Amino acid sequence: MMTQEKYHNANFQYQKVIDLVPGNTSANVGLVYSLSKLCIEEEKRCDELDIVFKKSLKRAESKDLFIDELLRLSADVKTKVVLEDLIKSAIKKN
């Protein structure tokens, strides 16, 4: 769904995986990434992004892997900037 740019459906599916396996790093990365794409490309659910990012970071089995994978997915500049800002904000608060 992500490759087809169906971010809403992808977000929903990632959340279902997290409901079953909360620490799944890939699902947490996908959840944040798909939500960031919804925000950037469709201007939807932007108000949730910071909260979802923080919860996903907290749930991820490996915080370093979570951040690395999230940045690896960010091929376009807008998404990379948004995600880097979220990461910087989370690091400052900790």
What is the mean predicted local confidence, pLDDT?
89
Q: Which range best describes the helical content: under 10%, 10-25%, 25-40%, 40-55%, 55-70% or over 70%?
A: over 70%
How is the biggest beta sheet arranged? Answer: none
Helix and strand string, N-terminal first? HHHHH
Q: What structural category do the secondary elements indicate? A: mainly alpha
User: What is the β-strand count?
Assistant: 0
Strand content: under 5%
Which residue ranges are poorly predicted, with pLDDT under 50 across at least 5 consecutive positions?
Answer: none
Q: What would you say this structure looks like, in words?
A:
Helix 1 packs antiparallel against helix 2 and helix 4 runs antiparallel to helix 5. This protein has one domain. The chain is built from 5 helices and no strands. By secondary structure, the protein is mainly alpha-helical.
Can you give me a brief rundown of this structure?
This protein is mainly alpha-helical and 94 residues long.
Write the layout of secondary structure elements.
Layout: H1 7-20, H2 25-42, H3 49-59, H4 63-73, H5 77-93
Helix pairs in contact: 1-2, 2-3, 2-4, 2-5, 4-5
Key phrases:
94 residues, mainly alpha, 5 helices, 76% helix
